[in-house]
Structures are given as structure tokens and as C-alpha cells.
Design goal:
Length: 99
């Protein structure tokens, strides 16, 4: 079963993934393929107020920590916290660098 899940992860990254650069706290850089998603979600007690939430899905063998930077094209984010993991992929909350 693990083999099939690994194959599915590779297909998912090949289809939806994009190359991003991870800048670690020790200033090392790592090129990885991840899935960046942006969505508008309601915030606060009123659903009319929306905010953009950016997440990054990475294979679970890519080690990152809070404060690492993610660079993709001309955009840059800072890793905030881990949202979830399923054994194959981990999802991380991002916020714009400098924000």
C-alpha cells in the first residue's frame, strides 16, 4: 500500500506542483517541488469579511520549520505553522514575508 501512495504523491506533485526555493534559518537553500494554494476564507464573525490564505504542501521527507522562507517566482512567504499531515504530504500555513 505504501508503494501505491508514494506513486500517487509523485503523480500529484508532477501534475500540480511547482518549483519553490526553501531558504532555511541557517541561510541554506533547497529547491523542491510543492503545491502552493491560495483561497479566500471567511474570517471573524461576519462571512462578508474574507482573507486570503496561502498554504504549501510538501512531501513529508522535506524538513522545514517555522520561520523558513518560501520563494516562488517574484513572491516570498514565511512558513507559519504545520496545518496537517497524512504520512505522505505535510501542509504548511504561509504568510507574506515582511507582513
Amino acid at each position: 500500500m505504501q508503494g501505491e501512495l508514494s506513486d500517487l504523491k509523485r503523480q500529484l506533485l508532477a501534475t500540480f506542483g511547482e518549483a519553490v526555493t526553501l531558504k532555511k534559518s541557517d541561510d541554506s537553500r533547497l529547491e523542491v517541488t510543492g503545491i502552493l494554494t491560495r483561497e479566500l476564507v471567511p474570517t471573524g464573525p461576519y462571512e462578508q469579511v474574507l482573507q486570503e490564505v496561502t498554504t504549501l504542501a510538501l512531501p513529508n521527507d522535506v524538513k522545514v520549520s517555522r520561520g523558513d522562507e518560501v520563494i516562488s517566482a517574484a513572491q516570498q512567504w514565511t512558513i507559519d505553522r504545520k496545518l496537517k499531515g497524512d504520512g505522505q504530504m505535510n501542509w504548511w500555513s504561509l504568510h507574506e514575508a515582511g507582513a
